[in-house]
Automatic annotation (TrEMBL):
Keyword terms, alphabetized: DNA-binding
A Gene Ontology BP annotation from the UniProt entry: DNA-mediated transformation
Protein's recorded name: DNA-binding protein
Organism domain of life: Bacteria
GO molecular function annotation: DNA binding
Keyword DNA-binding: yes
Family of the protein in this entry: Belongs to the DprA/Smf family.
Domain Smf/DprA SLOG: 81-287
Natural source organism: Sporolactobacillus inulinus CASD
Keyword DNA-binding included in the entry's annotation: yes
Length: 292
């Protein structure tokens, strides 16, 4: 493994700094050849962070053993993929705030697929939800589309489950050693074996509430469009849809009954300009030009 990737893995494991600071560090030291000479005071001055955070960062930087980290990743069959790697998703590179590093477990070749659609929705789906997935999403799978979602309960897990015989990628809001929710651990194991699971967080990072909306930008950023199936007016699915719009991607929504709370969010999206979807061809017609 090259020097740049090793150092980026170490940085990703350091406390006291976040993604934005690492990007600023890369601007100052593009090949990561000088940053180990920085003092805590340098870090504080260069990146405008508190002394306490700078001290924690420097302590971790000099205590973490790159060889040990790489050995752990290898033992866990986890592949680190940097922003500059050939396997890094091409569409993801063009969003405002891409991850500088992702960890992948499974079939890494899926990251280079061009026909990708994200599918998200409520954690409490109706009885009709599976019928909707079978009518709209399964034909897309059979046509060679890779389904990207967040492995949450409900629509996410259902979409992944139906795609196991085809192609699907899960983006976690935790490290790969702590898949969430626990109810989907069997699905996680199946996907690691035959599909792909990725995360921007170190493998031992535990699920935190703030990480889930943060990872949504990756779900939408990897794909040509986002399909929302059943969502309340205030839900994480709408965060993903908003991210997709900010990234210049298409948003699709399946309509439902005005009496169902889980349709309020999708109806609001349609009012705001999302394409109403009744058939899988509605999505194909809209996205074909993006692949030309």
């Amino acid at each position: 493994m090259d020097h740049f990737t090793r150092e980026l893995i170490v940085l990703n494991h350091c406390r006291g700094v976040g993604r934005k600071m690492i990007w600023r560090l890369l601007q100052r030291d593009p090949d990561l050849s000088r940053f180990r000479n920085y003092s805590a005071r340098d870090i504080q001055r260069f990146f405008h962070i508190s002394q306490a955070k700078a001290n924690v960062f420097i302590d971790d930087l000099h205590q973490l053993d790159p060889k040990k980290l790489l050995s752990m990743l290898h033992a866990q069959q986890i592949t680190p993929i940097t922003f500059h790697h050939s396997s890094y998703p091409k569409l993801l590179k063009h969003i405002f705030d891409p991850p500088y590093l992702i960890y992948a477990k499974g079939n890494i070749s899926l990251l280079n697929e061009t026909k990708m659609l994200s599918v998200v929705g409520t954690r409490h789906p109706s009885r009709e939800a599976l019928q909707i997935i079978n009518k709209i999403v399964v034909p897309l799978m059979k046509s060679g589309w890779t389904i990207v979602s967040g492995m949450a309960m409900g629509i996410d897990g259902m979409a992944h489950q139906q795609a196991l015989a085809h192609q699907t990628i899960a983006v976690l809001g935790s490290g790969l050693n702590h898949p969430y929710p626990r109810q989907n651990c069997p699905l996680f194991k199946q996907m690691c074996a035959s599909q792909l699971v990725i995360s921007e967080y170190p493998p031992d990072a535990r699920p935190e509430r703030w990480r889930f909306p943060e990872r949504n930008r990756i779900i939408s950023g990897m794909t040509l469009g986002t399909l929302v199936i059943e969502a309340k007016e205030k839900s994480g699915s709408l965060i993903t849809a908003d991210q997709a719009l900010d990234q210049g991607r298409d948003v699709f929504a399946v309509p439902g009954s005005i009496f169902k709370e889980t349709c309020g969010g999708t109806h609001r999206l349609i009012q705001q300009g999302a394409k109403l979807v009744c058939d899988w061809q509605d999505i194909i017609q809209e996205l074909t030009w993006r692949m030309e």
